[in-house]
Design brief:
This is Methyltransferase type 11 domain-containing protein. The protein has 320 residues and is an alpha/beta fold. The protein is 35% helix and 22% strand. The structure holds zinc ion.
């Protein structure tokens, strides 16, 4: 294993175009055989190509295996209902970017839960999504336009935008720098780009060395695994400058579960829960829940500040 980890391969880095990489591992989630490489020059971690095409997202294949519920495929309605209650965490993180006059584009909007949560809070909401099932759900149930073509080639009549968000999207795109440059074309000169994406310096990998998590972490649809440093480099090449921080949204109890069981909790809701007593009724039960909620908040703030939160957050602008 040690020898394998040091194996050097010829491969072109998608961030710095360096041409040598170290093999990090050769298996993904579900034991899929695929090399994970780390660029020798800049440290960027990525899947060896060739990989899945945009058609993978347009059809039903992606959600068959990847969604908020690990036990079964979720319908667009289930995805919408599972994620909607947690959108306030993103609102908090975006702070003053959300104003009543804001015109916002969400790229990779999935079932539209984030844009729906902004109803009445911003002026104009527009989505872009490749999954035909999820686009159909938004068009049938929600009240904002959604476009189903790659943002790279899209003309959006509502643009340009004050804010563009891409939440857990950058890790899926084939060429991150070109994608980011293309986002910039839809942004007003002084507009803001807001990104959330997985952080490879996740506390479960870096500090706790949770082997079960590592096996789960690297997955076929995630082509890029950014750190603060490699994300900053990619954004800079794409013409953006701003602040990068990390946030921890999964709870302390989720981490204890990973450390002790070395496997995921069965759904997204459980991973976001910081309660010892479900449906607490008595004052003792409520006091126990209040304790874990306080402790969880303190823990997640600490992990985020240490730069080890599960997600990287970027807020910035195009360089003038
Ligand atoms: Zn590189």
């Amino acid at each position: 294993m040690c020898l394998m980890r040091k194996k050097m391969l010829a491969a072109t880095c998608y961030v710095c175009h360096g041409n040598r990489a170290i093999l990090v591992r050769d298996r993904l989630r579900f034991n899929i055989k695929r090399n994970v490489l780390r660029c020798v020059n800049c440290g960027f971690v990525y899947l060896e190509r060739p990989h899945i095409s945009k058609k993978f997202y347009a059809g039903k294949e992606y959600r068959k295996h990847h969604g908020p519920n690990l036990a079964k495929k979720s319908s667009p309605k289930e995805i919408f209902e599972m994620y909607l209650p947690y959108q306030h965490l993103i609102h908090e993180s975006m702070g003053t970017l959300l104003k009543s006059g804001t015109k916002i584009l969400d790229v990779g909007c999935s079932t539209g839960h984030f844009l729906h949560s902004l109803k009445g809070r911003v002026n104009t909401r527009v989505g872009v999504e490749l999954s035909s099932e999820e686009v159909a759900f938004v068009r049938k149930n929600l009240d904002f336009p959604v476009y189903d073509k790659p943002v790279e080639t899209l003309h959006i009549p509502e643009g340009p935008f004050d804010v563009i968000t891409a939440l857990q999207v950058l890790e899926h795109v084939e060429d991150p720098i070109t994608f980011l440059r293309n986002l910039g074309k839809h942004l007003k000169p002084n507009g803001h780009l807001y990104l959330e994406l997985p952080n490879i310096d996740d506390v479960l990998l870096v500090a706790y060395g949770a082997k079960g998590y590592e096996t789960f972490y690297y997955r076929e649809p995630h082509l890029s695994y950014f750190s603060k440093a490699t994300l900053r480099r990619a954004l800079s090449k794409a013409g953006f400058a701003g602040e990068i921080r990390t946030v921890q949204r999964y709870t302390l109890m989720n981490h204890i579960h990973w450390i002790t069981a070395q496997k995921p909790q069965s759904n997204f809701d459980l991973g976001m829960t910081a309660q010892l007593v479900p449906h607490a009724k008595t004052s003792a039960e409520k006091a126990l829940n209040a304790f874990i909620e306080r402790t969880d908040r303190e823990y997640r703030d600490l992990v985020g500040k240490l730069g080890l939160g599960e997600s990287l957050v970027f807020v910035g602008k195009k360089r003038s």
